[in-house]
Amino acid sequence: MKMRFLTVVAAVALLAACSSNEEAGKANTGAGTAAATTAAAKPGVVPGSQADFVANVGDRVFFAFDKSDLSAQARQQLASWVVFLKKYPQDKLTVEGHCDDRGTREYNLALGARRANSVKEFLVAQGVPADRLKTISYGKERPAVLGDNETAWAQNRRGVGVVGE
Question: For the chain, what are the domain ranges?
Answer without folding.
Answer: 45-164
